[in-house]
Amino acid sequence: MNARIERDNIVTQSLGQIGACGLFLLQILAATPRSLRRHVRETVRQLWFVGAMSLTIIMVCGLFVGMVLALQLYHVLSIFGGTAATGTVVAISIYRELGPVITALLFAGRAGTAITAEIGLMRATDQIAAMELMAVDPLAYVAAPRFLAGLIALPLLCCVFSALGIFGGHLVGVTWLGIDNGTFWSNMTATVDVWQDIISGVVWKSLAFGAVVALIAVFQGYTAPPTSEGVAYATTRTVVASSIAILALDFVLTAFLM
Amino acid sequence: MNAAAPSDDTLIRIRGLTTVLSGKKVFDALDMDIPRGKVTAIMGPSGTGKTTLLKHITGQMRGDAGQVQVDGKNVPELGREALYALREKIGYLFQNSALLTDFDVFENVAFPLRQHTSLPEVLIRNIVLTKLQAVGLRGAAQLAPSELSGGMARRVALARAIVFDPMLILYDEPFVGLDPIALNQVLKLIRTLNQTLGITSVLVAHELDAIKQVADRVFLIANGKVVAQGDPKTIAGDGSPWTRQFFGGEADGPVPFQYPASDYAEALGFPRSGA
């Protein structure tokens, strides 16, 4: 009986959080025109912070993901004598799934946690209240710029991740394992479809993931209890909730976009 | 206790304010009139809702009943735009300074000007440096908030609160953490702002000696009501049990020192006498 009550409480709390997060999204969207009109410099500053500052981790991880993918695929495909398709499979895997998903997971870990911790501490140290008392709307000055920055940065970071991933695949496949350079590129360009693979994967999925991760990060920071423990839990929740949301949403989007 | 009769000289008029937080009645039909152009101090034991009262005045909190009128506007009824328009005319000094940690001292003080005006940079610079000079921190303009002591941060927050020359400044514990030199300068500054610009000041503070030097009127609140009010130089001797206990620093009186708890001896495990 107690286990059932506990389970019901968890379900109720989770649904309540999702509902509150949805209402928070509406508040951010309502504040966005004001934010762009009055605080566009803050959005640019956040774009630098969550986008440009995440470049190193995205580039390094993209390179290694492409390298390991090419290495694994080469050995599997060589069983069937199909090593010429290595470039194609690397590119399609990265464009459709690995690029958007891994970029979003890395983004949640690198930028999402930073956003949550920053906003949570701003609330704990009364900086958000100070803004309200200086007649500066924190939704327009704090929340909306970070949400927009996440929305814009993730697709751009995914492009960089994908490019570095394919470069890594080329490095292993062509330079190391000896696949013909012309075959690697020509098979890839002949098979990869711009709309099916690049637009639906890199663009649409990244935009959706960017919106979800940025929303969760900002929401968790904004609603974090103003204590050290509260901010710590909120930061953890950002990673957990973002990771689950990214993978669940990936399945749903793939089902619709296929 | 009834507040003074309302008049046009009243900037903040509170009537029947009742607020219940977590089942505890913080304000119980509180009445208060804060005069325009004067320095008013709000005193009271810890936890009586002095900061909460400031939050009602700025519209950060709304009571369960009653009115809080500031400059003729009933704050709980104001919409977002009207409330923000009112807040542009109010300066607020936080207990913990609440400086924006992303910016240095100069940018913290310049923040309200940048957000609400399109003044040229040279004018913003002059205004900010004037305010920083007034609090004695012009030389610290380029420091980060993390490099400031608590007292310095409070003075920067004070410079930010007065950067717009507001009609009303609310000071939440302005004297905490100030050394005697800074305390004296802040007292002078509050007085000067009041006398030269006619700014109304409301202070929440515990330091009676400082309040005697600067305030025109004192309200003592306890148990959700105004229990005494009057001239700061004479209020301590008005003879009421509230003022006698509060200003005398006595543990016994109408304000309990101990938070409600079970029997002390029982909690320590000692046998009750006579048992």
3D architecture notes:
The complex is a heterodimer of chains A (258) and B (275). Chain A is 88% helix and 0% strand. By secondary structure, chain A is mainly alpha-helical. Chain A is elongated. The mean pLDDT of chain A is 93. By secondary structure, chain B is an alpha/beta fold. Chain B contains nine helices and ten strands. Chain B has helices spanning 50-57, 80-87, 105-116, 121-134, 150-161, 180-197, 208-214, 241-248, 264-268; strands spanning 10-21, 24-35, 39-43, 65-70, 73-74, 90-93, 168-172, 200-204, 217-222, 225-230. In chain B, helix 6 links the parallel strand 7 (168-172) and strand 8 (200-204). The interface between A and B is medium-sized, with 16 and 20 residues.
Structural class of chain B: alpha/beta
Q: What is the tally of helical segments of chain B?
A: 9
Shape of chain B: globular
**Model regions low in confidence, pLDDT < 50 over at least 5 residues of chain B:** 1-6
CATH class of one domain in chain B, named Alpha Beta
Strand ordering within the main sheet of chain B: 6-7-8-3-9-10
Give the count of structural domains of chain A: 1
Q: How would a textbook summarize the main sheet of chain B? A: 6 strands, mixed
* Count of helical stretches of chain A: 9
What structural class results from the helix and strand content of chain A?
mainly alpha
> Which percent range fits the helix content of chain B?
25-40%
Query: According to CATH, what is the topology of one domain in chain B?
Result: Rossmann fold
CATH superfamily of one domain in chain B: P-loop containing nucleotide triphosphate hydrolases
The count of strands of chain A amounts to: 0
Largest interface: A-B, 16 and 20 residues
Oligomer: heterodimer
What order do the SSEs of chain B take from the amino end to the carboxyl end, as H and E?
A: EEEHEEHEHHHEHEHEEHH
| Principal-axes shape call of chain A | elongated
Name the helix and strand elements of chain A from N-terminus to C-terminus, one letter apiece: HHHHHHHHH
Helical amount of chain A: over 70%
